[in-house]
Amino acid sequence: MRGALLARIGLAVVASIALALPASASGASAPAREKPTISIEACTDPSPSPFPPEIDTNWISSASGFPPGTVVLATQDVYDHSSGSFLHRDQVHLEPPFDFQFGWFSPVTVFLTVEWEGGTLSTSRYINCDEPGSKEDCRKGGWRDYPEFKNQGQCLTFVRRNPPPPAPEPPPTGAG
Which residues contact 59 (CB under 8 A, 6 or more apart)? Predict the structure, then answer.
């Protein structure tokens, strides 16, 4: 019995070593490494809402797929289309994955930049929870969130005819 247990432990150690070898050494192809990604998910409707009732726009900024132990500088800038100015900048060093939830008044453009030793990822998204701001807002049943549309085609037509207003680029992050 003890010999069988040691044999199983030995197989586990050999398997662990084989998994750690490069593909060329083990003769097998290495598993695909997840690529770092960032995203901004709009109008997430948390329940219960952590925001006061007058906050009608919310979003989640996310990062994932970074190598273990990677520390990034995440910068988020929020441009308020109603006032025509940048509201604030959130800037923090942290280790992904992360999901941060935010809220404000409609409409805004959110800019997310993540910098690390392997490069820089940037994305932005116009967010107005009262109407769709992109084709993505209409897809995968998203058109149902807007009662004025009877189908996805009507939602996509609205987005095509009503593009989001432009927002200026945020100031540089200064992470260098």
Answer: 40, 41, 42, 43, 44, 101, 102, 103, 110, 125, 127
Those residues whose C-beta lies under 8 Å from the C-beta of residue 76, and which sit 6 or more positions away, are 61, 89, 90, 91, 100, 102, 110, 111, 112, 113
Contact of 23 with 66, CB cutoff 8 Å: no
**Residue in this structure with the two tokens 């932005």, named with its chain if needed:** 124
Q: How many CB atoms lie within 10 A of CB 61?
A: 22
Residue with the two structure tokens 């003769």: 27
- Fold of domain 37-130: Immunoglobulin-like (2.60.40)
Q: Report the distance separating Cα 155 and Cα 138, nearest Å.
A: 6
108-116 and 119-127 beta bridge pairing: antiparallel
| 40-44, 46-50, 56-60, 165-169: which is most confident | 165-169
Domain extent listing, the chain? 37-130
Higher pLDDT, 122 or 6: 122
Residue with tokens 């990034």: 72
Higher pLDDT, 156 or 2: 156
